[in-house]
Every structure is written in structure tokens, then in C-alpha cells.
Design goal:
Elements (H helix, E strand, L loop, with lengths): L16 H5 L2 H16 L7 H11 L1 H6 L5 H17 L29 H16 L7 H9 L5 H8 L7 H4 L7 E4 L2 E4 L1
Antiparallel strand pairs: 1-2
Helix pairs in contact: 2-3, 3-5, 3-7, 3-8, 6-7
């Protein structure tokens, strides 16, 4: 792995290594998102890179958007346009840190190469997996982590492509522990 590849977020992948904390499928997703960020010249892996890789690699996440249907195709089409320059307004900008509600600890700094929101989505995914007693984080956990932050680029992509996000958290299996950021208050769903 070269030094330009984003390192793993602290707390999620530290210690046990990628294979110990992520399912095999999700490890492929994260590696794909890293490659996508590097290939299109983005300095940081962001939540849209993670969403793109999830939809390409994880059938369970695709199923939440209706499988191989029109909704999934629209989201992938929007993401592909971004890859070839449509999302140029995001180029050379870092996805900002998500807001934290009263009583929540401040987010740890995102590691080099990761947007703060992407690192947060992975931490939420880990918490979600732990809340259901799973040893490994799955793609649906990461998808839930993305949906929990209504201000992230992944959610912006879902909305802009017409996929909508309102009903998705309730469609997730074992949705307990999913958090939603609304304004400056985080609420459990």
C-alpha cells in the first residue's frame, strides 16, 4: 500500500486490523472507496466514495434501494457523473465534520486521507454492529452510518438522485442504534 492511500480511521480499524473488524465484503468496499478517491484525484475518501463502493459491491445495500432497479441505477449514474467531474465543486474540499449534540463527546480528528464525516460513518457502523452483538461490521452497518448523518455527501447524493432518504433508516435490519443528525442534536432512531 503506498503512502497516498488513506489510512484507516482510529478506533475502528486499529488493533485487530481490517480483517478483524470489517466483514470481508465491507473490507472490499472500503478498499474500493480508497481506490476511487485516489483515481479521481480527491485528497480525501468521503462518504460519497463509500456510498458508491457500497452500491457496487454489496447486494444487501443495493436491495435497500430496490435491488438492480431504477432507483439504484439513478444513484449509481449520479455517482458516476461525479467521478468524471460532475462533482467538481467538491474537488479540493474536505467533507466537514458532522455536528454533535449536547452531551456528545467531540469527534476524534479524522485520520489523514479520510473526511471527518467518512470516519464518523465508520465509527457509527462499528457501534451499530456492536449493538446487535456482531463481531464484524457489515455493509448495511456502514450504510446506516451514512444515513445517520443527514449533512454528508452520501445523503446529498441520495437526495439529488431522487432516491430519497426518509424511509431508508426504518428499512434497515436491526435499525436500533442508528443516529440521525438534525441540526445540532443527535437523536436515536
Amino acid at each position: 500500500m503506498n503512502s497516498s492511500t488513506p489510512s484507516a480511521p482510529p478506533g475502528l480499524l486499529a488493533g485487530a486490523g481490517t480483517e478483524g473488524r470489517l466483514s470481508e465484503q465491507l473490507a472490499v468496499v472500503v478498499a474500493g472507496a480508497r481506490r476511487r478517491a485516489a483515481r479521481i484525484g480527491d485528497g480525501d475518501l468521503d462518504t460519497a466514495h463509500l456510498l458508491h463502493s457500497l452500491l457496487e459491491s454489496d447486494p444487501a445495500v443495493r436491495a435497500l434501494l430496490g435491488g438492480e432497479g431504477t432507483r439504484t441505477a439513478k444513484v449509481l449514474g449520479y455517482l458516476a457523473q461525479r467521478s468524471i467531474g460532475y462533482g467538481v465543486r467538491w474537488r479540493d474540499t474536505v467533507e466537514d465534520a458532522p455536528p454533535y449534540g449536547a452531551g456528545e463527546a467531540a469527534a476524534p480528528a479524522a485520520p489523514p486521507g479520510w473526511s471527518p464525516r467518512a470516519a464518523r460513518a465508520l465509527r457509527v457502523a462499528q457501534e451499530r454492529a456492536a449493538s446487535r452483538g456482531a463481531a464484524r461490521v457489515e455493509g448495511v452497518d456502514l450504510f446506516a452510518g451514512l444515513l445517520a448523518d443527514e449533512g454528508c455527501r452520501a445523503v446529498e447524493v441520495l437526495r439529488a438522485s431522487g432516491a430519497g432518504t426518509e424511509a431508508l433508516p426504518g428499512a434497515l435490519p436491526d435499525a436500533r442504534g442508528v443516529r440521525s443528525m438534525r441540526g445540532d442534536t443527535a437523536v436515536a432512531r
